Amino acid sequence: MELKGLTKEEVLKSRKKFGANVLTQKKRESFLKKVLQGLFDPMILILLCALVIQLVLLFLGRAEWYESFGVFLAIMIANLVSALSEYKQEGQASALQSEELAREKAKVLRNGILQEISITEVVTGDIVYLQAGDKLPADGEVICGHLMLDQAVLNGETEEAEKIPCSVAGCYDTSDLLNKHYVYRGTVVCGGEGYVEIKMVGDKTLFGKLALEVQELTRATPLQVKLAHLAKQISTFGYVGAVTIVCAILGRSIFSGNFIQTNPNFFSWLRIILDAVTVAVTIIVCAVPEGLPMLTSLLLSFQSLKMARDNVLVHKINGIETAGSLSLLFSDKTGTITEGKLNVVTFATGDLHYFKNLNEVSEDFQDDLLIGLGLNNSSKINGSNVLGGNPTDRALMTFLIKENVANKLDRSIITKFEPFDSTKKYSLIEINNIEYIKGAGEKILEASTHYLSPNGEVKELANKEKLFEYLDTQSAASMRLIGVAKRMKGMQILLCIISIRDDVRQEVIEAIKEVKTAGIQVVMVTGDRKQTAVAIARDAGLLTGKDEIAMTSSELAELSDKEMKNIIPRLRVVARALPTDKSRLVRLAQELDYVVGMTGDGVNDAPALKKADVGFAMGSGTEVAKEAGDITILDDNFTSIARAILYGRTMFMSIRKFLIFQLTVNVAAVLICLLAPILGQNVVLTVVQLLLINIAMDTLAAIAFGSEKAKKNIMKNAPIPRKEGLITAKMFLQIVFGALYITAICLSIIFVPPVRSLFGKVDIVYLRTALFATFMMSITCNGFNAMAEGINPFENILENKVFIAIMSLIFILQFVFVTFGGAILAVERLSLKSWIICFTLAVFIIPLEITRKAIVKFLP
Question: Which of 345, 399, 405, 559 is the most exposed place for a label (fewest CB within 10 A)?
Answer without folding.
Answer: 559
